[in-house]
Description:
This protein has five helices and no strands. The protein is an all-alpha fold.
Amino acid sequence: MKKIVSTVLKVSGGAAIGFINGFFGGGGGMLCVPLLEKVLKTETKKAHATAIMIILPISIASAIAYIFNGYADWGATAISSVGVTAGGAVGALLLNKLKSVWVGVVFAVIMIAAGVKLLF
Length: 120
């Protein structure tokens, strides 16, 4: 029974994350990390790394839909890809160096800042 509940949580949580990422064009990780940590009891660093792996196929599926609907800005994509790739590599290296508590603090601060920015 416990395995069934876990599977249902993973599938329904995945559906919610996919919807958020597809609807907003990103942001699924902000929902994925807390789901993994709080609901599925995944260790902090593993939750962040797993969220990245989960977001990859969601992002590909969303990108395909956006491209077919004519919403892709290829110039911005090309320029941003350089920074995103470098930033992702640095972030992954820092994840290995920081203690889990600091990873959680940085994540919380970024989530709060994003929420405040959306309000104003």
